[in-house]
Amino acid sequence: MQTQDQRLLIVDDDDVFCHVLSRALTRRGYDVKVAHDAEQALEIATSFSPSLATLDLKLEHSSGLKLLPDLLKIAPQCRVVVLTGYSSIATAVEAIKLGAVHYLCKPVDADDVIAAFDHDGGDPDIELADNPPSINRITWEHIQKVLQEHDGNISATARALGMHRRTLQRKLQKRPVRR
Is the pTM of this model over 0.85? Predict the structure, then answer.
C-alpha cells in the first residue's frame, strides 16, 4: 500500500500499544493520530478524515463495533481493521458485516496492520484447523455472542445465559481460551 498521504487513526484505550504502533507506522510514512475513546475518535475523524483506521474491539467505556458505523459515516472511504485481545467468531463476523476490511487478534505489529489494510476479499487457500475448538473456547465464543446481542450489558447477558452476574464478570476478565 502506498504510504503517501495515508492518514491513519488508531483507536485504542491502551496507551502503550498506541504509542508503539503510532511510532512504528509514523516511521513507515503514515500520518498518524491517536484516540483513546469513541468520542475522541469521532472528533478526530471529523477534522482529520482518515483513510485508514485501527479500531480496538473492547474500548474502556464502549464497543468498537458500536463505533465502527459512526466512524464510517464520517469517513466512508476509510479502511478499518478491528483489533482485539478478546477474539470470537461472532465479533469477527459482525466487524466485517459493519464494514471493517479485516479483523486481527492481538498481539499485532505494524507489518500485520499494514498487510491487513491491503486485504481484499477472502483467502480460499487459508489453512483449516485440524482439530475442533475446545468446549472452553466454544463457551467463550458463545458468551461473546450473547454479550454482543445485549449491547455489552453484563446484567442482561447474565440473565440470558442463566448465570450470576458476578460469575459472568469473572469469566469476562479472563483472557480468551485458546483452541
Answer: no
Specify burial of residue 126 (Cβ count, 10 A radius: 0-12, 13-18, 19+): exposed
pLDDT along the chain (179 residues), means of 10: 72 92 94 95 96 92 91 95 85 91 89 87 62 75 81 90 91 70
In this structure, what are the phi and psi dihedrals at residue 79, rounded to the nearest 5 degrees?
Answer: -95, 115
What is the spatial distance between Cα 82 and Cα 53, in angstroms, rounded to a whole number? 8
Distant-in-sequence, close-in-space partners of 111: CB < 8 Å, separation ≥ 6 = none
Instruction: Give burial (CB, 10 Å; 0-12/13-18/19+) of 135.
Output: exposed
